[in-house]
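Regression report. Comparing outputs from two consecutive submissions.

Submission 1:
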Amino acid sequence: MNFDLRKLLVLLAAITALVVGGCGGDDGDDGGDDGGGGGGGEALSEEDYATEIDGVLTTFGEESISLGTELSQATTPEALSSGVDDLSGLTQTAVDDLNGIEPPEEAAEAHETLTSALEGYLSDIETLADAVESEDPAAAQEAALQFQEAAVEVQSDLSEAATQLEEAGIDPPSE
């Protein structure tokens, strides 16, 4: 089962729209921790690397779809906060998993771009979670607008990572 990196861009945009649409509430929590697998240490072959990132992004994508459904149904500040918290945990897991993968030399730049993009997205989610937790609807709404802008930047970074992988001769995750 392969996951298209470019589809992740669309998915992040959809999640962003759902989160932004639900903001204006209050209460929340941030968090998320989880380890990942992958390797670390010895660089993977191009084929093994592609398989590893495919696994990470497939899991991230599939779980994000489920989470997006939950967020779209959030009707209370508590539900929104819980959904943002879950998004933070999910993204942290993907970042940890990517950090556990040692890319081949040809993919090092793309891997750094990919990992940095999701780390930036995680930081943006945590900023949003803090604003939702503040119980200040205006602050939550402002943070949601900033989150939407940041998501556009993340999408651009992920697109750049896909291009870098292609230029390195590594097929980015795709169906």
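Submission 2:
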Amino acid sequence: MRTQSGFTLIELVITVAVIATMSAIAVPNLLRWIDNHKLASAVSDLMLVMQHARIRAAKEHANVVITFDPDGDGDIDGNYLVFVDNGINPKTRWTREPDERIIHRGSMPQGIEMQEVSFAGGVPRTRFNTMGLPNGFGGHVYLRNPRNNYLGIHMNLNGNPRVVSSDSGEKGSWK
């Protein structure tokens, strides 16, 4: 007599059903985690860029500008650009001239958008002077992921950035 080994059809169907059920539970949680990780990573990257610009301004004794293009439809080829402003032409201060050195150029990860960018005077840019201090009274950058989770950066008048969050993304809800 031969002994047959293997799985029966019922055993295979039950195994596949269990795997399918576990996948249906795990995949949405994994996708939510990925979106939240992208948002946190984008905020962390922006924070480093701001700190780096501040340090470069003080170290090189130069004005360093960070210009943001929240919609990505401007002429900076990305969502933000950091450059050394030589200040030669006072009319184009804040705007990069061809001879001004680019320190960093960046874009938001796919699915992450800049909800709001506002610095001194309500403009989407800031500048660190030769002592590493920002112009005006600081400002903020607010980001949002596809699941409507919000993180941002507040920069105080000394140029120190800190991460903030909001449940709704509305003004006054950031903490």
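Expected: both submissions complete independently.
Actual: both completed, but the second showed a warning that disappeared on reload.
Relevant detail on submission 2: The chain has one domain: 9-166.
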